[in-house]
Design brief:
Length: about 280
């Protein structure tokens, strides 16, 4: 993987960790997810007029991705109600790249042995964070919801990777913007039908920070989708999950959480996996 792509995907991971912390920090996780979708969609709306129209081949993947993203927002809201971010986030993001790699292998698009090693080391480091947290905070329901969410993440990752590639070179950013714009509608229909009266006051109270989180999500996913048109999908998906490391470090710096020996080991494993992917 070229160095500039690696650095950009790492930047995307930092942005991803930022918006997840914003969602977790809100009182209502579903409403925070809706605000996130709104912020990312509004940001995309300002960019779309300057981008080329998507080829017809991309639209079936867009439809599939919208279904996956609606499920994802609902699942992540449920997970963050049950477990801490350091548990749910690491499980969700740690399992997803391994699932993605296995599906790609079944589709006949496997990675090289070196790249597989990088994916495995990276996932091992991320899951080590999960085990460290589970020793202190066991919640079977939250764990299962987080695992369920990881399958949804793998689903939209594959749909968007293939969708962006279907349009050919140069359509990655346009595809990502369309995803974020379209995601506004199914989630807000769901929220208004179930919680319309409660959502509007929450929007006025938390709209600013929620929309900022959505813009972080737009930047994060836009970079990831573009990278998937330049490098193997499984490699990009695995590297992007270093966001859990940024999330952990933010928790240590801003929330006063302890940096335990097992977490330091996890950081080293993730760094090693990143370097293997770089030269894989």
């Amino acid at each position: 993987m070229p160095s500039h792509i690696l650095l950009l995907v790492l930047g995307a991971a930092l942005l991803h960790a930022t918006w997840n912390i914003i969602v977790k920090g809100g009182d209502n996780k579903l409403f925070e997810s809706a605000l996130n979708a709104l912020g990312g969609g509004l940001g995309a709306l300002f960019i779309l007029p300057f981008l080329p129209p998507l080829p017809v081949a991309c639209w079936p993947f867009l439809a599939l991705s919208c279904c996956c993203h609606l499920t994802y927002y609902i699942c992540i809201s449920a997970a963050y109600k049950e477990v801490d971010l350091s548990i749910g986030y690491t499980i969700m993001r740690g399992c997803a790249p391994l699932i993605t790699s296995i599906v790609m292998l079944c589709l006949g698009q496997g990675l090289s042995l070196t790249s597989w090693s990088g994916v495995a080391i990276l996932c091992l480091g991320i899951l080590a964070l999960s085990l460290d947290n589970l020793k202190r905070h066991a919640n079977l329901r939250g764990i299962l919801i987080s695992l369920r969410t990881s399958f949804v993440i793998a689903g939209y990752t594959l749909a968007d990777g293939f969708g962006a590639s279907a349009g050919g070179d140069g359509y990655g950013v346009a595809y990502a913007c369309w995803i974020f714009f379209l995601n506004i509608f199914p989630l807000h229909i769901y929220v208004f039908l179930r919680h319309g009266r409660e959502y509007l006051p929450y929007l006025r109270q938390r709209g600013g920070i929620g929309i900022f989180g959505g813009l972080c999500g737009l930047g994060s996913y836009g970079i990831a989708i573009w990278a998937m048109t330049k490098a193997p999908i499984a490699m990009v998906a695995a590297l992007r999950e270093t966001s859990v490391i940024f999330g952990m470090l933010m928790a240590v710096i801003f929330l006063g959480e302890k940096l335990t020996p097992s977490r330091i080991l996890a950081v080293l494993l993730v760094c090693c996996g990143t370097m293997v992917l770089k030269y894989g």
